[in-house]
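Dear support,

We are seeing what looks like truncated structure output for some complexes. This example has four components. We would appreciate it if you could run it in full and send us the complete token output so we can diff it against ours.
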Amino acid sequence: MVTIGDVAKAAGVSRSTASYALSGKRSISDAVRLRVNEAVKTLQYTPNAGARSLATSQTKVIGLLAQFLDDEFAPAMLQYILGVSNTARELGYDILLVTDADGTSALRRISDSRMIDGIVLLNVAENDPRLDHLRAAQQPGALVGLPKDCDGLDVFDLDFEEAGRTMVDHLHRLGHRELILISQPQHVIDRGGAYVWRLQNAALAAAEARNITLHTVFAPSSQPAVGDALNELLDAHPTATGLLINNEAAAAALPSVLHERGLSTPKDLSVLGRYSDEFARTFSLPFSSIESAPDRLGSMAVRQLVRRIEGEIGPEEPNVVRFVTPDLIDRGSTAPPR
Amino acid sequence: MVTIGDVAKAAGVSRSTASYALSGKRSISDAVRLRVNEAVKTLQYTPNAGARSLATSQTKVIGLLAQFLDDEFAPAMLQYILGVSNTARELGYDILLVTDADGTSALRRISDSRMIDGIVLLNVAENDPRLDHLRAAQQPGALVGLPKDCDGLDVFDLDFEEAGRTMVDHLHRLGHRELILISQPQHVIDRGGAYVWRLQNAALAAAEARNITLHTVFAPSSQPAVGDALNELLDAHPTATGLLINNEAAAAALPSVLHERGLSTPKDLSVLGRYSDEFARTFSLPFSSIESAPDRLGSMAVRQLVRRIEGEIGPEEPNVVRFVTPDLIDRGSTAPPR
DNA sequence: CTGAAAGCGCTTACAG
DNA sequence: CTGAAAGCGCTTACAG
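Here is the complete output from our reference environment:
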């Protein structure tokens, strides 16, 4: 393989001069810079990443820990991954994608071996076992998802409380007085998916404050089952006029359920979801929704992480916990109840 | 950080002995091995990946080039990625996920800088511009998807010809005499998505051989548009009794289209798709289908790649081009025409 | 503005 | 069975 030594020889300079000419870390005569650049081009020189990382303790790689859990809807995950990946590339970093079932040991592996400069955690749970190791790691970490203890970590998440309030308020303003909130399965809460109850509790509080009825229910996240659950739900609350959905699988299943029941939105029922616009397009969902902004959250996490990696923010500087304010995207599925 | 030097010191041996004790590449007295292992444990030693790769020219990382094209249905891609990632981990490799729009330069970047030991290409086109660089690369490559020229590359793909024949034969045997085949958009073919016409041509040939009518059409891969296309199609061919679908977005949109038209399968129409079982579950698709086996294809590609990387197959050994025989998964959406 | 040299943390012939 | 040393390909103080 062609090394910087070959470049140096071809340019008639020392290896250090060749290196500096490429990095620009000290002034170089135009003549030399020109010859070095030419040598690089003709020899097709590319620095060896392993050698560089050994010398600089920098890999220019970010570890991305994504878990594909049974109780979660895989297509919704993809948006976060793409948001992280695209922003990382923009900032000059590559992505080491880790999908191990055992996230903790995977984290340790890539961190301790210095394969990466920083770590993004997706799918963060209330008491995420990965966090202890992340805090102990040499590399900075950024989370998408809010754990109980954010100490020492930069955290980005949708403001699910605000999302819950907005959903209730929006339908309340339109005149609705009895609503149903469909959340992720109980199972998601059990393993620490705090966003489920963060949204739900805020929605319940808002409903109480406005003195309206809010039925809450946990629905499955797998497709055949969730359709049945939706039907049961509509049977159980025939007087409810609005449906709030914090469950991607339920949102995806709803169009055919409504169709089967001969219901149309917003005439018979107002519907308001919580998912990304990309998700809505993929599944052709005609419901207004709270934008969950996965690409933006992934991007924010990476930007902050890179600032830490590159020392723009010192390790002593306090961690940030940033909530994205939920936007409501109107697709015309809400209206006053009839 | 703790190095192998620290381990050696703690165990009272030389660095080379410590290294050999860990790699097992030469015999070591039990006493020494014990002390070394103990030192590793107490010091929490993990080898530095960059240093190791510099010394061994091995990174234990596989590059995964995935393109997310507008004309393709993103959720269908995820299965390939997961298949590759999980198998790689099983074999001791990590995944560098590259989603750059410019796949060619991304390939060059990770290859020339020796960040990876081998490369998996997803979404391979008929004349894929990435292939020239892959052939010139130092690292072996494996493809998921069949290009025109497979020379020097290991290739894995579904047998789309057989898939096309099977689809036609299956409905022919049931007594159907007029079918419609819905393919990906023309656009996919234009940029080299050979699988579209591989399936279609084989289906046409099979239809001709059996003397039945097969209407073919390219439908959009985006959701609102594809629904309209399906409706037009059913309007245009009212006497057709069977629908073959080689277009994930069309398959996802079909249930509601059928519902709107008051059609049920297989009573009014027999439907046979081509997508993965995982995809069917995610979208709750009730149609029988040809399994596209993305996880299996991804896994096969990685296994072959690792065999090349680890020298079990020499570079002079001929490349393989392997087709997965399509299985038909019966979900009860086909029956004799009425 | 440039060069010779040390060092990053490993592995692996070479010697014994 | 074990050790001293060279080398992988970079970067970066240290000297001039």
